[in-house]
Design brief:
The structure holds two protein chains of two kinds. In chain A, helix 4 links the parallel strand 4 and strand 5. The N and C termini of chain A lie far apart (47 Å). Chain A has 13 helices and 16 strands. In chain A, 38% of the residues lie in helices and 21% in strands. In chain A, the strands form three sheets. In chain A, strands 2, 3, 4, 5, 6, 7, 8 and 14 form an eight-stranded mixed beta sheet that branches. In chain A, strands 11-13-12-15-16 form a five-stranded mixed beta sheet, with helices on both faces. An eight-stranded mixed beta sheet of chain B has the order 2-1-3-4-6-5-8-7, sandwiched between helices. In chain B, 52% of the residues are buried. Chain B is an alpha/beta fold. Chain B has a single domain, classed as Thiamin diphosphate (ThDP)-binding fold, Pyr/PP domains (Rossmann fold), CATH 3.40.50.970. In chain B, helix 2 packs across helix 7, helix 4 packs across helix 5 and helix 5 packs across helix 6. Classes of the chains: A alpha/beta, B alpha/beta. At the A-B interface, strand 3, helix 3, helix 4 and strand 10 of A face strand 2, helix 3, helix 5 and helix 9 of B. Bound molecules: thiamine diphosphate (TPP), iron/sulfur cluster (SF4) and magnesium ion. The site of thiamine diphosphate (TPP) has 16 residues of chain B, from helix 4.
Chain lengths: 387, 288
């Protein structure tokens, strides 16, 4: 249905499909109104670019295959200031190249979406095998302090849904939002239901409602987010990655830095409860919790089911929002369960965060793998060891 | 001093009021730097080209030259080092009527950003790129760059630079630019006319301006004042329209060959091509 070369596609493909995570992500972006994709091919994300190349021109959008990921990320920032919702897709090596300009997006408060279909790293690593090793890069990759929003799907349906959510967060809070997929999810096929157009929520960044003489492009509203005039609106905006005042003018002093950087952090911190999405499964009476995300969460859920069959009180907390991190929920969970088990395809990037949030109130145990996903049995064995 | 002269000096009005951002002057440029006069010429040329100011955007990377965009009272974008061109591409394709002008330095456009320049020219992106070539990295205190010439002394070439330098017009022409010119900062009138032509050109236009940077270039190369650099240009400049681009390489004592080297009509731009793809994809949509 969504395979290459099928040119008979309307704008929103309402209905039931059997498709891959990569194609579902692309369709989610189109459904929410993405009009520009700039990217550079890299396994295992390339099908997103390919699908956008096929689909965007038919919905009056543009696709550009840039010369590298540096151009891709800055190109989508430029397109957003021209008024097009825009995104790029990549994997670890490309994300590494993008981070400086993700920082520019944070500083200039530019809405856009970056999809990272994770593979094994470091470096060229495992191009065709799965990884969850870019968790910390999405948080700390770019220099300086900022609070990113990062979402992490676990199913093909969620790839579609979270692509929409990512654009909506990007527009509402004015920042680049990353979706952390992984190779398994990108390439596997399952059922996807695309709702009717009227059911798809589309958020657009607020526009100023004052005349140009009164407009201060970086003066926030109460929600700490400034209304956004774009090129051509007649506001003669000034956009810079230098520390700037409310006019957008560079002011290189301590006070301006403190005010600006605090605000771009606070606009996310103070809205954290609205941004954090979690799935809780059989946690009410749980004595052992598994904390999981991405593809691995599918195996984790299987393990919880098997444990329950054996009479073990296990439950699952699945992170759908990875950043901001759900510290409070994890602390509460730590007060409830004997162990939090964290299976992940890396050497403990999220485990360390869970340890921090649990504040020593429970036993936190990581279960690490490389280049492949855990199977439910492996996780179950660990659960059994914890009883 | 005559009364009327004093009035003029004390006047708070300036012919470019309204075109420069309020509250941004005084600028950061050193005495003797040509960036101030180049800023003036850019504004005059934008005016003369007759664009709707709303449809003009200026984009810069990082460097002294990159600061120009922030003084201009148009939609202006000061991006990251080397990345002004792909930002400008993203901005330009969203509106075929938008005039996007990139203004940046030699290091920004041809060292860290060189890859973007050659591909933007190849794609015929609908933007104008102005490079102020001051032969060095002014902003960071005078290191060599890809347009430094043999024998030039800079902080990172204390024994004299001994690499080949880029011949920018040649590079731009080879990569497919539809308009290519070079001037020295002294040729104010010609620069302005050339900017107007470049701005009005559909597709990738490129103008190199040889600028004076007394502070970090001149001082180390026996040209310690702005006017000495300009005099050096004046003494060694040769005007040669349509020059063979292989001849436009720069060496210490010139000749500095200036002129308009390329002016091609009607080559489809990146934006034209993207719109064509839309039509093709939508036509096949209807057929099936
Ligand atoms: C990624 C990155 N690397 C290095 C720098 C430091 N830097 C700022 S401007 C500049 C060079 C500027 O030279 P040029 O583009 O020729 O502009 P000029 O100051 O001479 O006008 C450098 C290396 C930076 N800002 N970002
Ligand atoms: S350092 Fe050179 S280029 Fe920079 S403002 Fe001073 S004179 Fe101009
Ligand atoms: Mg320079």
């Amino acid at each position: 249905m969504m395979s290459d070369g099928n040119l008979d596609l309307p704008e929103i493909l309402t209905g039931e499909h059997f498709t891959t995570g990569n194609h579902a992500t692309a369709e989610g972006a189109l459904a929410v109104g993405c009009k520009f994709f700039g990217g550079y091919p890299i396994t295992p994300s390339s099908e997103i670019a390919e699908h956008m190349a096929l689909r965007l021109p038919r919905v009056n959008g543009h696709f550009v295959q840039f010369e590298d990921e540096l151009a891709s990320i800055i190109g989508i920032l430029g397109a957003r200031w021209g008024g097009y919702k825009s995104m790029t897709a990549t994997s670890g090596p490309g994300y590494s190249l993008m981070v400086e300009n993700i920082g520019l997006g944070m500083m200039t408060e530019t809405p856009c979406v970056i999809i990272n279909v994770q593979r094994g790293g470091p470096s060229t690593g495992l191009p065709t095998l799965v990884g969850q090793q870019d968790i910390m890069q999405t948080k700390w990759g770019a220099h300086g302090d900022f609070e990113p929003i990062v979402l992490c799907p676990s199913s093909v349906q969620e790839c579609f849904d979270l692509a929409i959510q990512a654009f909506n967060y990007a527009e509402q809070y004015r920042l680049p939002v990353t979706v952390l997929m992984d190779e398994i999810l990108g390439h596997m096929s399952e059922k996807l239901i695309i709702p009717d157009k009227s059911k798809i929520k589309r958020v657009n960044a607020k526009k100023p409602n004052v005349p140009p003489e009164e407009y201060l492009p970086y003066k926030p509203d109460k929600d700490l987010v400034p209304p956004m005039a774009i090129a051509g609106d007649g506001y003669n905006i000034m956009v810079t990655g230098l520390t700037h005042d409310e006019r957008g003018y560079p002011v290189l002093d301590v006070e301006t830095q403190e005010k600006l950087v605090r605000r771009i952090n606070d606009k996310i911190r103070k809205n954290k409860d609205k941004i954090i999405i979690l799935e809780e499964y059989m946690l009410d009476d749980a004595e052992i919790a598994i904390l999981s995300f991405g593809s691995v969460a599918r195996a984790a859920k299987g393990a919880v089911n098997r444990a329950r069959e054996k009479g073990i009180k296990a439950g699952l907390l699945r992170l759908i929002t990875i950043w901001p991190f759900p510290d409070e929920r994890i602390e509460a969970l730590a007060n409830q369960v004997k162990t939090i088990l964290v299976p992940e395809i890396n050497y403990g990037q999220i485990t360390r965060e869970v340890e921090r949030a649990a504040q020593g109130k429970t036993n936190v145990k990581g279960l690490f793998k490389m280049g492949t996903m855990h199977n439910p049995q492996e996780i179950l064995s660990e659960i059994e060891k914890c009883v | 001093m005559a009364e009327e002269d004093r009035e003029l000096i004390e006047s708070h009005e300036h012919p470019l009021d309204g075109y420069l951002r309020e509250g941004r002057i005084p600028h950061i440029f050193c005495p003797g730097c040509s960036l101030g006069s180049i800023t003036n010429v850019i504004i005059e040329a934008i005016n003369e080209a007759g664009f709707d100011p709303k449809k003009v955007s200026v984009v810069s990377g990082i460097g002294c030259t990159g600061r120009i965009s922030g003084y201009l009272n148009y939609d202006s974008f000061h991006t990251t080092h080397g990345r002004s061109i792909p930002f400008a591409i993203g901005l330009s394709i969203t509106d075929p009527e938008r005039k996007v002008i990139v203004i940046s330095g030699d290091g920004d456009l041809f060292a860290i950003g060189g890859n973007h320049f050659i591909h933007a020219a190849r794609r015929n992106a609908d933007i104008t790129v102005i490079c102020v070539n001051n032969f060095n990295y002014g902003m960071t205190g005078g290191q060599v760059g890809p347009t430094s010439y043999m024998g030039q002394v800079q902080t990172t070439a204390p024994y004299g630079f001994n690499e080949e330098s880029f011949n920018l017009p040649h590079l731009a022409i080879t990569c497919g630019a539809v308009y290519v010119a070079r001037w020295t900062a002294l040729d104010v009138r010609r620069i302005k006319d050339s900017f107007v032509e470049a701005f009005k050109k559909k597709g990738f236009s490129f103008v190199e301006v040889l600028g004076s940077c007394p502070t970090t270039f001149g001082r180390r190369n026996q040209l310690a004042e702005g006017k000495k650099i300009l005099q050096h240009f004046a003494d060694h400049t040769v005007l040669k329209h349509d020059a063979d681009p292989k001849e436009t390489k720069i060496e210490k004592n010139g000749p500095f060959i200036v002129g308009k080297f390329v002016d091609i009509e009607d080559k489809p731009t990146l934006t034209d091509n993207l719109l064509a793809i839309q039509r093709i994809s939508q036509a096949s949509d209807k057929k099936s």
